[in-house]
Structures are given as C-alpha cells and as structure tokens.
Amino acid sequence: MPIALLSSLIRPLVEPHLPDAVDARFFSSLDELYTMAPEAEIGWFDLNEKEPMAEAVTLASNLKWLNSIYAGLDFLPLDLLRQRGVTITNGVGINAIAIAEYVTMMMLVHAKGYREVVRAQDRREWLPDSPGKIELPGTRALLLGFGAIGQQIKPRLEGLGVEVVPVRRSGADGALGPDEWRGRLGEFDWVILAVPATSETDGMIGAGELAAMKDSAVLVNIARGAVVEQDALVAALEAKSIGGALLDVTTPEPLPADHKLWGLENAHVTMHLSGRAQASMFRRSAERFLVNLDAYLKGEAMHPLFDPARGY
Q1: Residue 236: which of 268, 264, 197 has the closest Cα?
Q2: What does the pLDDT average to over 172-200?
Q3: Which candidate in 135, 158, 238, 253 is catalytic?
Q4: Quick check: is 224 catalytic?
Q5: pLDDT of residue 174
Q6: Catalytic residue among 110, 209, 224, 268
Q7: Pick the catalytic residue: 84, 184, 272, 284?
Q8: Contact residues for 16 (Cβ-Cβ < 8 A; gap 6+)
Q9: pLDDT of res. 160
Q10: Is 303 a catalytic residue?
C-alpha cells in the first residue's frame, strides 16, 4: 500500500475522498515532514518557505510521485528528482485566471493613473482631472509566454481592444518566433512576461531589450523576478527611458524595504499577490490531486506533468 505524505492544510479537502488503497499520513510541522518523508511514495510537501520543501524532497528517497500547488519548481533539487525518476505534477493553470485578471487590473491602473486617485481619496482631495488618460483600445501587447496563464491573458486584453501578439516556438497563427521578438520590441506598448523560470528565460529582459522598447512602453512581469535584469530595469525607470513597470515579482522576494523600486513613481510593485487573489486555489489543487491519485493507482497518465529537465 503506497504511503502518501500530505500537508495538514489540505487534509479537510482530500481525506474524505481518499481511497482505502492509500496509506495517507499528514504532517503539521517540519519535524513531522522530515521524519516521515523517507517513507513516502507519494508526496505533497508544499510550504510557504522553499528551502524546507527542497530539504523534504531530498530526504524522500522512496518518492515516486511528487505533487505541488506551485507551477514554478525551480527551487527544488530537479537533477536529483530526475535521477530518481520521480513523476512530478505541478500547479500550472491553477492560478491562471486570477493572474490574468491581475495583469488586466495592473494595466488599467497604470492607464488611468488610478494609484493617484486612491491617494487623493486618502487625502480627501477632489481631483479636477484624471491623472491617467491612456485608452487600451489600439495599443499593442507583446506576450512572452503562451502557456496556461498567457492563454488566459490574451482574450481578456483583446476584449479591451488590445492587439495581443504572443511569442511561440512555432511562430504560427500570427505569433512571433523565439528569434523574432527582440527585433520587434519597439512596436509594442506593453511587454508582458508570462514565461516559466528556466535557464533560457533567466535575464531575458536586460539593458538591450529595455533600450529597444518605446519610451512610453510598459513592462509587465508576472513570471519570475529573475527573468528581468533588475538593476537594468531600475536604471531604465530612473532615466524614464520606458514608460513604467508593473511588477508582481521581484528579486529578491520579499523586496527589501530600502530597495529603489519601492520609491519609483513609474514602478508598481504588487508583492507576488496575483495568484493569491482568489479563494479557489486549494480546492482546485485538491480536486486535481484526487483525479491524479486515481490515475496513479490505475497506472494511467497524470497531468499536468512537470519536466525537471526543461524546468516547466
């Protein structure tokens, strides 16, 4: 009988539906997790802190299937998991709707200068004019990353009149190929980053890419902070060589209180909250886990599968 080691946080959602063919055990502390991890064949080790998760995975020498609510798992010992032949299912798509809504919200907030409207209300000041006058129809967005999140972003922005051009490996259906987008950066009003965190995407937006953008263009990052060379971004924002940056992710996280990004008027930092702006994350994850558990016990395919070699 396979031992499944799961977080107590999801116990109420999964325990009533677990089959008798599984020996389910739940941890509520790091000590319990570390003690029981070596026996687990199935593991759902999600924690708020990444380092203890990585340690638990390392200790889980009998692990055959690792499940996670997180889409990006670059903080885990992926080489070790690949060597052990562990099947990995992740949380890709679980938060896609909330993140896509967040992208739309951030773009509208920037376009209408809405932060200043909120500040004026806090001051009880009646503004005589709108602090932002950008209209989204007619603007163009380059969408880097067309996975579950990107596919939710595109129709929402198109519904607001934005022309969205995704980047795809094939370059088909009006998309740009992976070798084309850099030469076209100057054509876009919005550059949206929704790529996975891999060695290929690390630092993909640097000084050269920022210099190629319009001086009014806005960078939107809901991927990972490491996708952008942050010092180059700060320099571009200080010089106002781009129109702004809407950042749900930074390097590091949390962003230190004395970091320059906090004080830049053309930077909007939203503390990696986009995926958490919903109440269905754990329910969706539990439902997906139970479907995959049934498939695992039957020897059938599970999804979505995370490839540790590719990093997504």
Answers
A1: 264
A2: 94
A3: 253
A4: yes
A5: 85
A6: 224
A7: 272
A8: none
A9: 98
A10: no
